[in-house]
Amino acid sequence: MKVNHIEKSIDGKLILEDITFELNKGEILGIIGRNGVGKTTLFRTLMNHYTKDKGTIEIDGKDIETNRELYEHLFYLDIQNSPIAKMTPVAIGKYYQKIYSTFDSEKYDKLIATNNLPKNKNYHQFSKGMQGLFNIILAISSNASYLILDEPFDGLDVIVKKQVLKLLLNEISLSDKAVLVSSHNLTELETLLDRALILKDGTIVNEYHLEEAKASMKKIQMVFKDKKVPRIIKENAEILTVQGRVMIGLFKEITPEMQQEIDQLNPVLFDEIPITLEDLFSSNLTDEADFQLFN
Question: Tell me: the pLDDT tens digits for 257-269?
Fold first, then answer.
């Protein structure tokens, strides 16, 4: 799936601007951003719940707007605007069979039974954990090629999260589906994602292939004798945290020449520590104010 230069305004306010990315089968792509940055708006726009102002969405090289049958390849459950709240799993299954021609009723019924979900109880009567499990069961039973999941782990306890993750990863490994997912819990996402897109002010400001980023970038814990931040650090590091005189910065790279200049400053501490997805996210929020703490 290719998303090309999508823009969307709501009530005269630009929410999404020039959104462009690809989602490949067999991969899990994360959309990372603060609350209100436009993640849900993006998902609704991809599904045509919101009409986009500009741009195109393609599946296998075809524009889904002119080939509307291709929407069957996308799954997104918008809980806030879905009719399923007062429906039972039995009724929901029949409803989705009409939407997805390849809906796997056998898999759906089996997963409902295996996970001990009540077939004749309304969705809104389910616990948060039951809803989370059901949402994933519905997604993978749709047989859509691209699953769009908005905060799928929100409010789930540890046991249910493990069940949700197991279902999701098993489906991807067996069927080569692709997942586009957002979550506030970056620790959970880190174990899942192949790539992450950072969404800020309605646009994608960075993209990370996680394994490559961790291999090439350096996260350094450092302390200098002088209370001011050295010029070379300001020019080459994105400050993640500051506690007293101890700061942690993220370097895209540290060349031998840079290391030599840093060594000449005789830092009290300059140690490499492991990089996390949260670090990559935080690095995109750094501004000059982070350095002012030292001045």
Answer: 999 999 999 999 9
pLDDT tens per residue across span 2-33? 999 999 999 999 999 999 999 999 999 999 98
Strand partners, 238: 250
Q: What's residue 293's pLDDT?
A: 44
Tell me the CATH number of domain 2-209, given options 3.40.50.300, 3.40.50.620, 2.40.240.50, 1.10.1710.10: 3.40.50.300
User: How many of the other CB atoms lie within 10 Å of CB of 236?
Assistant: 19
Beta-carbon contacts of 216 under 8 Å, excluding residues fewer than 6 positions away, are 252, 253
Q: Between helices 128-141 and 158-175, what is the axis angle to 10°? A: 0
DSSP 89-109: HHHHHHHHHHH-TT--HHHHH
Range 77-86 average pLDDT: 89
pTM to 2 decimals? 0.86
Helix, strand, or coil here: 258?
A: helix
Domain ranges of the chain: 2-209, 217-292
**Concatenated DSSP letters of 2-17:** EEEEEEEEETTEEEEE
- pLDDT higher than threshold 70 for residue 294: no
The torsion angle over the Cα atoms of residues 18, 23, 28 and 29, rounded to 10 degrees, is -10
Across 282-294, average pLDDT: 58
